[in-house]
């Protein structure tokens, strides 16, 4: 998730040692023993993807399934970060222009949202789309967030349903804002020219890194012979493939994902040698996911080339890929801002400012049919860079 007042940094500082201990900050009292147990049952080592999955999604204990505040504009609320719908309602109202076009192009009346957070984006979309939406389906693992969403969406309760598992068929338009960045990643560390998978071991009551030789590789060669840490995203790409399967099982549809990330050539640039994994707590960013486990967000930037290839390999078309700034401007954000108050314009400006969300955040559009042009990619389409 986004780190609050400005987009988070694009690298971390794990360090390059074979094994690095971490401070014993107070962890979630039930979650950490469960992870230690998983490590012991696995022979003393688990990959970071499994650690990240448990830290974020272990039922009732993980960061996204426990009762912590998470979303909010200020740390005084106990929140950890703010996302675009929380910055300005113009985000969802503008995105609704694209969703409406996609509903018309696909002949659908249902919107699906993965990871709906506070429900702010759903509210903005439902308010804007009106009768164009017959049903709004939220797929979210968090019971506590679901309760907050239900309260936020009370006036649209007759249209909204929640699912905690994927249906066999998805028809309509899918939206996911800052969803892909929270999917578990595997860490690959090149040390002395040899690739290792970086995993997690127990060290007393704390956790520590340990690297093991692996046959896994990044999807492209990394120039140079310097030590290099990066991520691969098999779970995120599997998510896209599963979505494609379900969209194609019915009458079809489209999907739009907004998140921070890069195309492959930028993601695996030789200078990005410290990876992109970051954590967020009380609107502060840090690079150590092994402490305060279950009490802070863990994210990695999205490899949008991997997303596009997973979609195409599963039969979807890429409608476009561009920065969040171009996407929102193509959909009329500037015109909305011109009619807003100074305070409203100031908040909305952060959605498109290059040094805030405008450039670091990207948008990719996918669809079961490529015979229509999505308005959000009219100008500034960067599909050729994927």
Structure description:
There is one protein chain. The protein has 386 residues and is of the alpha/beta class. The chain has helices at residues 31-41, 48-57, 84-87, 90-106, 120-129, 143-152, 234-249, 264-267, 304-313, 324-330, 333-338, 342-349, 354-360; strands spanning 46-47, 70-71, 79-81, 110-114, 135-139, 160-163, 172-177, 186-191, 194-203, 206-213, 228-232, 253-262, 278-281, 284-286, 297-299, 302-303, 317-323, 361-367. The strands form 4 sheets. Strands 4, 5, 6, 7, 12, 16, 17 and 18 form an 8-stranded mixed beta sheet that branches. A hairpin with a 2-residue loop joins β13 (278-281) and β14. α4 (90-106) crosses α5 and α7 (234-249) packs parallel to α9 (304-313). The relative contact order is 0.18. The model is unreliable at 1-27 (pLDDT under 50).
Layout of strands and helices, then pairs:
Blueprint: H1 31-41, E1 46-47, H2 48-57, E2 70-71, E3 79-81, H3 84-87, H4 90-106, E4 110-114, H5 120-129, E5 135-139, H6 143-152, E6 160-163, E7 172-177, E8 186-191, E9 194-203, E10 206-213, E11 228-232, H7 234-249, E12 253-262, H8 264-267, E13 278-281, E14 284-286, E15 297-299, E16 302-303, H9 304-313, E17 317-323, H10 324-330, H11 333-338, H12 342-349, H13 354-360, E18 361-367
Parallel strand pairs: 2-3, 4-5, 4-7, 5-6, 7-12, 12-16
Antiparallel strand pairs: 1-9, 8-9, 8-11, 9-10, 12-18, 13-14, 13-15, 17-18
Helix pairs in contact: 4-5, 7-9
Question: Tally of extended strands?
Answer: 18
> How much β-strand is present in the residues?
15-25%
Derived structural class: alpha/beta
* Integer-rounded radius of gyration: 20 Å
The biggest sheet, with number of strands, parallel, antiparallel or mixed sense and barrel status, is: 8 strands, mixed
Terminal CA distance: 23 Å
**What sort of overall outline do the alpha carbons produce when their principal axes are compared?**
globular
Mean pLDDT: 90
Instruction: Indicate the percent of residues in helices.
Output: 25-40%
Counting H and I runs of at least 4 residues, what is the number of helices?
13
Uncertain spans = 1-27
